[in-house]
Amino acid sequence: MTLSPESASPLLTDTDVHERVEALVGPAVRDRCVWLVLVDGDRRQVPLLIPMEDAPRRPGREADGLRDMLAHLTDHLTTDAGPGSCVFVLERLGTPAIEPADEEWAEALTAAAVGAGFGSLGVFLSTPVDVRRVR
Fold this sequence. Notes:
By secondary structure, this protein is α+β, with helices and mostly antiparallel strands. It has one domain (37-133). 30% of the residues lie in helices and 24% in strands. The chain has helices at residues 14-24, 62-71, 74-77, 100-115, and strands at 33-39, 45-52, 85-91, 119-126, 131-133. Strand 3 (85-91), helix 4 and strand 4 (119-126) form a beta-alpha-beta unit. Helix 2 (62-71) runs parallel beside helix 4 (100-115). The longest helix is centred in the C-terminal third of the chain and has 16 residues, at 100-115. The chain is globular, with a radius of gyration of 14 Å.
């Protein structure tokens, strides 16, 4: 079965979000990719999955650029139920353990979303072994 954001159920629980990340990204097959999943105020995923490839090991100005990009989308994803949200996935090869750089990315990505007026439904780590929540 192919996952279609238009027909997929809303992301109402942490389990819903985790299962969606596993369905969309799954275990890592590439190194240093940050995935962005946008969700509207009704908690429905928009039909766009944005990969940001060749991300540096640790976040830098990329988070500022992301915040600025997201700020342009805030009005489009806000509904009567509230503001839109972001789900982030850090895809990397290597150990499945959450590393300090993963925590730094999680903090920077969450700050970018909040700074743009979005909520965050989580930051996940995708490694060749599994997908797990960082924040």
